[in-house]
Amino acid sequence: MKDDRGILLLTVLPTSALAVAVWLALRQLAKLFRKPKLDMPHLCFTDGDNSPQRYAQQSGGLLERGYEQYSKKGLPFSMYNHADRSRPIAVLPVKYLAEIRNAASAELSFSSYLNTTTIAHDIGAPLVTDRVIHLVRHDLNKSLNDLIQPLQQVCEKLVPGLVSPCPDWTPHNAFYLLMPLVSRLMARVLVGPELWDSDEWHGVIMAYFQAGGEASRHVRDTYPPWLRWTSRYLDKNVKAIYATRRRGQEILKPVIEARLAEATGSGSAPARGHGPRFQDGIGWLVDSYMTDNHFVQTDHIMQDQAFLVAASIHSISLTALSALLDLVDHADAIAEIREEIATVFAEHGGWTRQSLAALRLLDSFMKESQRFNNFQYNTMQRLAVVDYTFKDGLRIPAGTSIVVPSRLLGRDPDLHGRDADKFDAKRWLRRREQGDATKFHFASLQDDMLPWGSGPHACPGRFLAQDMIKLVLVHLLTQYDLKFPEGVEGRPADIPENTNSNPNMMAQILFKGR
Hints:
Layout: H1 2-33, E1 42-43, H2 52-69, E2 77-79, E3 89-91, H3 97-102, E4 108-109, H4 110-117, H5 120-123, H6 130-142, H7 144-162, E5 170-173, H8 174-190, H9 199-222, H10 231-234, H11 236-264, H12 281-291, H13 298-329, H14 334-348, H15 353-357, H16 360-372, E6 378-384, E7 388-389, E8 395-396, E9 401-405, H17 407-410, H18 413-416, H19 427-434, H20 462-479, E10 480-483, E11 495-497, E12 500-502, E13 508-513
Parallel strand pairs: 1-2, 3-9
Antiparallel strand pairs: 2-3, 4-6, 5-13, 6-9, 7-8, 10-13, 11-12
């Protein structure tokens, strides 16, 4: 009898343990797929077609309807989330802005939002970290005065080669002119004088992000969340990410070693605190790891560099493209802007942060372009790390993404006057002259338009973007006349892409040397 009980136990216990394990696994899977219940209206297309392809093309119109119907009345709404089809995104009105920007990162997290929507952990893409945010906010912004001259030299070297000699009107694709220029300007800041013009480095970076974009879409759409970790062994684009990471490390290694020698005083460059040092992202990262007593690893610096490139080049290029298209579309403003450029250059004898700041009309034009044609419908993106309840009782379940409208705020006549639907190049210049001259510039933070976000997590690189775009536009406006091709009556229509409305990257501009 005892033997029978022992046999029964040996048979039942493993089966019971397996059943418990399966039950626990199913509970975890249920949590992954359980859609959070959002106590707010859900907007969708009412004719039955709610395909991802339709949202990719028409989310802007849905957001406009939600803004008029709910946001302007202080009410939240939800809609399809292209980055996580199992969870709707919550679009919150500006009355929640102060609470969002003051919430702890352990509750509402910008970093978690970015890392989750890109599924960076699963595919080996670069992660946003406190270290890279600190680098931009402190090291980069503190060094901007020293960077203007090197950036000016990059423009002087590259612009004539990117814009072929133009004795007569010559067509150029504006985006594919600006993208390599911005890419090399950012490289001068991030990887320094050795690599900024390296075709091999730029080739690796472009390959990295092409593979990253393809991998992010493919893995998100085809792999269940609990199997995404296998994509590094199965998906060709994820494999390509890891391959380009390794090649990027090889390219960066000599520069990292040079910065280490500089920091420790073991090379020919001056040691820390003993004279001028390289002002670039690799040097700042080496210093950061050493200050924290962390071993400096090339893979870590490659990933940090990759995130900084991803966070800057595309968005700055699109913003510059939008401003350039608006300049050609409002050619009546160009003569006065050129006059301002000539006057400021003569007064200051060159370009510095101070002289670039004196370009107030150009700054006003750029800000109006940003207000009127902001390519992001939403900013203030956060992921609810835990269940979060706002002061008025609105509950956001953990795992939910939240955003605040930006593009539509900028066009709201209740906020910007009855002429909000008109492009006014001097709108922000007048506001600076009539009020506080330190406000209303391109990089300013305002609650009535949010292209840079707001609060502690506002874009820390906005000051660099401001100066970089000014340098680019100064070079183009002073060296070339610009117009649209025959038959193009105005700024080409923007291209919708989920919750973005991108300036037309195929737009042609005619250039003629001055």
